[in-house]
Design brief:
alpha+beta, four-stranded mixed beta sheet, three-stranded antiparallel beta sheet, 7 strands, 28% strand, elongated, binds 8-OXO-guanosine-5'-triphosphate, binds magnesium ion, MutT-like, mutator protein, 8-oxo-dGTP diphosphatase
């Protein structure tokens, strides 16, 4: 038996934070309804309803990324001047931290269509809670409801 005290292990280094920047948009129609899209099977958080948008590419400005995503996902053309910042989500997922500015857009060119086979729905902000959304999105809902006031 050694009389040497067991060495205490150094405290585990904190897990490096992986920050993921995603831009999202609440498209609003003339009746104040907001567009949500169902995340397709096979993607993280599949089956949950989200705001259209996605990750920034390297060197891309947030507004340019959002305009690109809205075109890729919905086939619409949005002018940067028609994107108004509303609020943002800051949410710790298990494996990354999501920082997600949410813009509002009421004007675009073209017709909204599901370019990626995703299910789309126009929903009154007060009904958004009827649709399961990623946990990061839940604090955004009151901001959309407040827009109607
Ligand atoms: N677009 C969008 N992403 C969201 C929302 N809420 C939320 O937690 N996210 C998360 O943000 C990340 C965005 O990923 P994404 O898969 O949409 O990115 P993307 O459009 O660039 O697609 P890709 O990675 O397949 O190319 C996912 O981890 C997603 O779960 C939301 O309302 N809209
Ligand atoms: Mg996306």
């Amino acid at each position: 038996m050694s009389d040497v005290a067991p060495q205490s292990l150094p405290p585990a280094a904190p897990k490096p934070l992986r920050m993921v920047l995603v831009v999202a948009c609440a498209l609003l129609d003339a009746d104040g309804r907001v567009l949500i899209a169902k995340r397709p099977e096979g993607k993280a958080l599949a089956g949950l309803w989200e705001f259209p948008g996605g990750k920034l590419e390297a060197g891309e400005r947030p507004e340019a990324a959002l305009i690109r995503e809205l075109h890729e996902e919905l086939g619409i053309t949005v002018k940067e001047a028609c994107l108004a910042p509303l609020t943002f989500a800051s949410h710790a997922y298990d494996d990354f931290h999501l920082l997600m500015p949410l813009y509002v857009c009421r004007r675009w060119d073209g017709f909204v269509s599901a370019r990626e086979g995703q299910e789309l729905k126009w929903v009154a902000p007060a009904r958004l809670r009827d649709y399961p959304m990623p946990p990061a999105d839940e604090p955004l809902i009151p901001h959309l409801i407040a827009l109607q006031a």
